[in-house]
Amino acid sequence: MERTDLDTRLRVLAERQHSVVSWRQARLLGATQDAMAKRCRSTDWEAVTPRVLRLVGSVATFEQRCVAATLDAGPRAAVSHHAAARLWRFPGFVGDEIHTSRPRCATRLPTDLMVFHESRVLPVFHLSSKTAIRLT
Questions:
Q1: Average pLDDT over the chain, rounded to an integer
Q2: 136 falls in which pLDDT band (50, 70, 90)?
Q3: Would you tell me how many other CB atoms lie within 10 Å of the CB of residue 6?
Q4: Which terminus of the chain is more exposed, N or C, with fewer CB under 10 A?
């Protein structure tokens, strides 16, 4: 795949996800490990976590951090607790702390970006979406 084609695909995906993409998503788009490593060294992308990249120059928002946290936590992860209430704009939920929940037995380790929770049961019908962010 040509570099410009991959860059276009990554940017289109990032546009839908508050300017962040995961390495896993990039691999699904056809990126190699080497291609992603080059993007990490470029001036266009920066690492938010070891597994998530952010477009340089994009506005850093709470929503962007929430998407990055869910991408970092894994494919079935979702924003939860107070952070989910803030995204739904419930009164009184204004903190910046991000909580994520995911099914137990996932293999990824959490990062400093979030408070991490694991659930024995996290069925798909317990999840919803708000501004392209998965919520419990």
A1: 84
A2: very low
A3: 18
A4: N
Give the tokens for residue 128: 């919803």
Q: How far is CA 134 from CA 3, 9, 125, in A?
A: 30, 21, 11
- Mean pLDDT across the stretch 40-65? 93
DSSP code, position 23: H
In whole angstroms, what is the distance from residue 109 CA to residue 81 CA? 19
pTM for this predicted structure: 0.82
CA distance 82 to 59: 22
- Judge contact between 55 and 89, C-beta under 8 A: no
Cβ–Cβ under 8 Å, residues 78 and 134: yes
What mean pLDDT is predicted for residues 17-28?
94
Cβ atoms of 31 and 6 closer than 8 Å? yes
Q: What are the two backbone dihedrals, phi and then psi, of residue 68, each rounded to the nearest 5 degrees?
A: -60, -40
Looking at 1-136, list the stretches that DSSP marks H as alpha helix, in order from N- to C-terminal side. Answer: 3-16, 23-28, 33-41, 62-73, 81-87
